[in-house]
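Hi all, long-time lurker, first post. I run a small reading group and we've been trying to get comfortable going from sequence to structure in the token notation. Rather than ask abstract questions, I figured I'd post a concrete chain and ask someone more experienced to write out its structure so we can walk through it together at our next meeting. Sequence below, copied exactly:
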Amino acid sequence: MDRCRFAFVIGIINVIYYAVSTIVFTAMIIKTELDKKLVASSSPYILSLCCGLIMVSVSILMIVGAAKSRHSFIAPWVLLTGFGLVIGTFYLLIFGYTVPIWELFNYITFIASQSVSCYSIYLFWKDIKNGVYNNDLHIAELSNPPPYVHSSATIRTSYEINDPVL
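-- Answer (accepted) --
Happy to help. Here is the structure in token form:
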């Protein structure tokens, strides 16, 4: 799969994931605030809600950046996801022994999948930043391949044609 399409897919998956999580955190905040019997504070939910909303907007920005081949639109997603991976890894190393084995497996799977997707989109961002990847050229190559693609072409310059054979 092309890295541009991969960025679209990851961006759409992130938008859906973080949109659903913000809805869940909003419901938890409402439930905590309405039910006075609960002793729990709603401040962790508010922090998670803010982070979810930020990631929704950054994921939408990444989709636009992939469509327009703008590295500055993809950079916030790469930075925030990398920051989240570092925090998640430290959390796993510090508190990993206290969680059940299935939750530990979920953490490890999530960190591994996020690492692969973040690295791939980082390479895409780096290619766009260095000018290696041009979306318009890439689409033109995919839709209009050059003629005689499978034949081997010999390239001659004008001085080779006029030179006498020795």
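A couple of things your group might point at:
Residues 3-34 form the longest helix (32 residues).
The two ends are 50 Å apart (CA to CA).
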